[in-house]
Design goal:
Layout (H helix, E strand, L loop, with lengths): L6 E2 L3 H9 L3 H7 L13 E2 L1 H15 L4 H7 L8 H7 L4 H15 L2 E7 L5 E7 L8 H19 L7 E4 L8 H8 L3 E3 L4 E4 L1 H4 L8 H15 L8 H12 L7 H7 L4 H10 L4 H19 L4 H7 L5 H12 L3 H9 L1
Helix pairs in contact: 2-3, 4-7, 5-6, 11-14, 14-16, 14-17, 15-16
């Protein structure tokens, strides 16, 4: 996949800096960046310059808590594409999948996502070009974003289970960090935040498929930049991984995401000896086995994650795929 090599500072930054009580020209001057940068459109910053921006912000504000305050100012009115893309998801499970794809397509970042046997999800942002030089404030802001996302999307006071940072905040600020995240920050090799299985599946009140369609044209364009060696099967499978948790994995929806007609998609799959029905079943089976082997999600919860309307439909489908029930498959993996 061709990945963007630059970070974009959208126009929403001007309002955020104003609300934070910071003069943007002072920050940009400290970072040795053009003072009209935030007024420009479609102009990206290489990683080193983007990090200078955050370092300039740190130096200008001189407040260890400013990334928490900054993220706390983010609202549904903020012009922030990643936030909008996440808010219109059905749950954190789907939002993280969308964000993982969004970040890889739009900037030199990725999200490492892991689910442990208890169903807890850990999200770890990675900066692909300079992982060891990330300003501490940027690492904190990336993790704080998920707390703010959950607050906006669920209207509940959601707390993290665990939060790790490569560099701990000064001891005098530890209490404020704990109050924000709901748990003391511990030291780890990479920044990460972990949520409970309950919160991973907590429904988003802001789910809005219409809003998501606003982002589809750009996503489709980026998807078209996949390596020429990628097969239609691989492209379809990548889209299905994002659509399935939201229950919107139809052939028409996948064709739309890939920028082609339904008939063209069917023809290309046929040329590769594949069918859409086979691919969606294969992807669902693969995800089901992953959840059964690596989490404590109930069959009902897995049915929801796979886009089934009710658990019995999942039971019947899983038995058709594997010849056994989900419970039997889970017991077999634990032997």
């Amino acid at each position: 996949m061709v990945r963007n090599q630059t970070f974009f500072l959208n126009i929403g930054w001007r309002a955020l800096l104003k609300d934070l009580g910071v003069r943007q020209e002072h920050v940009l001057r400290r970072a040795e960046l053009p003072e009209d940068l935030l007024s420009r459109t479609n102009e990206g910053l290489p990683t080193e310059a983007y990090f200078r921006f955050w370092q300039g912000l740190e130096d200008e504000v001189e407040d260890v808590l400013f990334p928490l305050k900054l993220v706390g100012l983010v609202s549904t009115e903020s012009f922030d594409p990643p936030l909008f893309a996440a808010l219109c998801s059905a749950s954190l499970a789907q939002a993280v999948q969308r964000l993982a794809k969004y970040k890889q397509l739009m900037m030199p970042m990725s999200l490492e996502i892991a689910v442990n046997p208890r169903g807890e999800m850990t999200i770890s942002p990675r900066w692909l070009l300079a992982q060891d030089q990330v300003p501490r404030s940027l690492q904190v802001a990336e993790l704080a974003f998920y707390i703010r996302l959950m607050q906006l999307a669920t209207r509940e006071p959601v707390n993290a289970l665990r939060v790790t940072l490569p560099e701990l905040p000064p001891p005098s600020y530890a209490r404020q960090f704990s109050a924000f995240f709901g748990v003391p920050v511990t030291q780890g090799q990479y920044p990460s935040i972990t949520f409970s299985s309950t919160d991973v599946l907590r429904p988003f009140l802001t789910v809005n498929e219409g809003m998501w369609r606003v982002f589809e044209p750009e996503l489709r364009r980026r998807l078209s930049e996949l390596d020429a060696t990628a097969t239609t099967r691989e492209r379809v499978s990548a889209v299905l991984l994002e659509l399935i948790p939201g229950g919107t994995a139809s052939i028409d929806k996948v064709a739309l995401r890939l920028g082609m007609s339904r008939r063209t998609l069917q023809r290309r799959l046929e040329l590769e000896g594949e069918s859409f029905r086979t691919l969606i079943n294969h992807t669902r089976e693969k995800l089901a086995r992953h959840y059964l082997e690596n989490s404590s999600f109930s069959s009902g919860e897995i049915a929801f994650l796979l886009g089934f309307e009710e658990p019995n439909s999942f039971y019947r489908a899983f038995h058709e795929w594997t010849g056994q029930t989900p419970d039997a498959a889970r017991r077999a993996t634990s032997l």
